[in-house]
Amino acid sequence: MSLALRILFRPSSSLAGRLSSLAVIGGLLPLLLVACEPGSGHEGQQAKLVERPVLVASAHYEDQTETRTFAATIRPRVESDLGFRVGGKVAQRLVQNGERVRKGQPLLTLDTNDLELQVQQADAEVRAAKLSLIQAEGDERRAIELQTKGWTAAATVEKARASAEEARGRQTRAQRSLDLARNSLAYATLVADADGLITATLAEPGQVVAAGQAVARLAHLGEMEALVALPETFVERARKAEGSLTLWSLPGHSYDVKLRELASAADTATRTYAARYAIADADDAVRLGMSATLTLRETAGTRAARLPLTALFNHGEGPSVWVVDAAGRLSARPVVVARYDGSSVMVGAGIAEGDKVVTLGVEKLDPGLVVRPVASLSF
């Protein structure tokens, strides 16, 4: 540095020479500063290698579980097709698809002209049967009275008694016919048999329907269920698995579910088995027809440590991980992989509980290297 100052301020130097010397010194100054910096050179490089930070995660063994997810649809536990108990022509449709109804509320009506005529006819039969019964009972009383006085034969009394019994039976039949005609007239109005939601209307005004033909579909407002199609390889495992349900419209909340019904035969088209899971704690957010994700978990009975896939490497000797000891030195540990789970790997053996495992940059490390572990936030 003193040599450079002497060159710059020589008495015999001209202004141009001084400017040229200043430019040379300006170019050499950074090199001089770097050379004077402590820790530069080979010793500084070794210091940086010693302090190399690496991301690590503590190994924690937990019960090994296998998780499967399936697409599900929210369905009611009870959904029934409703139809008229008599045939006829549909006169009115009083509800729309998706409408909520109460028990006893009219849904559809039939044309009642013929049914009213049947009621009138049955009523006339009842009145005629009553008159016949009055006359037959009068003949029976007179025959009995004459027999007591000895003026008529026993055969006449028996005939009068048989006529009275027949008249009583005719009146009973006529009364029953009237009751049936009135019931048929009442059946011309289809009413909801429970509180629920109309999910389909299958008949329109002017359509002629037969007795028992489905004209509306009613979903009862009670227990909700998740309907899912299970592959045949998961049917038996589904009986033991624990389930939870997450709505697509409410991904932050899950519901506990329990298997209620599992089909005994596979669907002929999809070769899957229909399963119904009861939603025990369903609230107003669970609505019919919603899409959901059913998650089934089954415990394997073994324990494994979950690590990110980036912690695993293989240099021709099988899967291994880097473990950092208390002094910060690296050592390679061969591990046994239980299974791969998405972005994670389940390690069944090879590392101990609490070992610090390097989770990133494992291909750039060497055995015995001293590092500074930095805990990973998540993986």
Architecture blueprint of SSEs:
Elements: H1 2-8, H2 15-36, H3 42-50, E1 52-58, E2 61-76, E3 79-83, E4 88-93, E5 100-101, E6 106-110, H4 113-148, H5 154-186, E7 189-191, E8 196-201, E9 208-209, E10 214-220, E11 224-231, H6 235-238, E12 242-247, E13 250-262, E14 272-279, E15 291-308, E16 313-314, E17 319-324, E18 330-334, E19 336-341, E20 344-349, E21 356-358, E22 371-375
Parallel strand pairs: 1-22
Antiparallel strand pairs: 1-21, 2-11, 2-15, 3-10, 4-6, 4-9, 5-8, 6-7, 8-10, 11-14, 12-13, 12-15, 13-14, 15-20, 16-17, 17-18, 17-21, 19-20
Outline of this structure?
This protein is of the alpha+beta class.
Number of strands: 22
Low-confidence runs: 1-9, 11-49
Q: The biggest beta sheet, please? A: 6 strands, mixed
CATH homology superfamily of the largest domain: Efflux pump adaptor protein, beta barrel domain
> In what range is the share of β-strand residues?
35-45%
How many H/I helices? 6
What's the CATH architecture name of the largest domain? Beta Barrel
For the record, the count of structural domains works out to 5
Can you give the mean pLDDT? 84
Distance between the termini: 54 Å
Q: Tell me the CATH topology of the largest domain.
A: Elongation Factor Tu (Ef-tu), domain 3
Radius of gyration: 47 Å
- The CATH class assignment of the largest domain is Mainly Beta
Overall geometric form: rod-shaped
- The helicity comes to 25-40%
Q: Structural class of the helix and strand makeup?
A: alpha+beta
H and E string: HHHEEEEEEHHEEEEEHEEEEEEEEEEE
